[in-house]
Design goal:
The chain is of the alpha+beta class. The protein is built from 6 helices and 7 strands. Helix 2 runs antiparallel to helix 3. The longest helix is centred in the first third of the chain and has 19 residues.
Length: 198
């Protein structure tokens, strides 16, 4: 009989359930099971195969910290956010689940998040308090297009990024890492490098 912990992690491919069971004599992770929601097909079979490989590694004495480190950071086209962390792929989600388990962060709550409207309100408050808060905030470089109508381009970019965030997607490009994704003809597209989801 083994005891373990099951975690649910949101991924770009659905909810991933990761169960880590411990060796009763050492307290170390002994096996790992992973199930990706109701997806089926390639995604489910890939997830099951990865979990079985990790279980075999754990039973063979491979350091769990090394497994977590190797899996974290693996990217895929679809990303999601879980407890304030960007989950870039199914292997990244499993690595994150292992790291949280090993670091004792399984019960870590979801960080308080702010909406774009709340951030705008804070910026407006900062501008009315004599500029003290504005002096503390780091400034971001801006560019000006002399031919464009003033503010039109910025408003369009904010709307496109806002639409992306409102749909629950990350505005970060999986190719170049810039925060400039927007929807173009129904596909996420990067303004910086030209990457397209389609």
């Amino acid at each position: 009989m083994l005891h373990g912990v099951t975690q649910r992690i949101d991924t770009g491919y659905g909810k991933l359930y990761v169960n880590i069971n411990e060796d009763p004599s050492t307290g170390e992770p002994f096996e790992l099971f992973a199930n990706i929601g109701n997806s089926g097909g390639f995604t489910a079979s890939f997830t099951e195969a990865l979990a079985k490989t990790i279980s075999t590694s754990l039973r063979s004495g491979v350091d769990p910290d090394e497994i977590a480190s190797e899996l974290q950071g693996i990217r895929s086209p679809k990303v999601a956010w879980d407890k304030g962390e960007q989950i870039q792929s199914i292997p990244d989600a499993i690595g994150t689940a292992m790291r949280r388990y090993l670091d004792g962060e399984i019960d870590k709550g979801i960080p308080q998040q702010q909406t774009i409207d709340e951030l705008d309100d804070e910026a407006a408050d900062a501008s009315t308090d004599g500029g003290a808060a504005a002096a503390e905030a780091p400034s971001e470089p801006t560019s000006v297009d002399v031919d464009a109508e003033p503010g039109a381009d910025d408003a369009a970019k904010e709307d496109a990024t806002g639409d992306l965030i409102a749909s629950g997607e990350s505005p970060e490009c999986p190719e170049c890492g810039s925060m400039s994704l927007y929807y173009s003809e129904g596909c996420k597209t990067c303004e910086s490098c030209g990457w397209s989801e389609c």
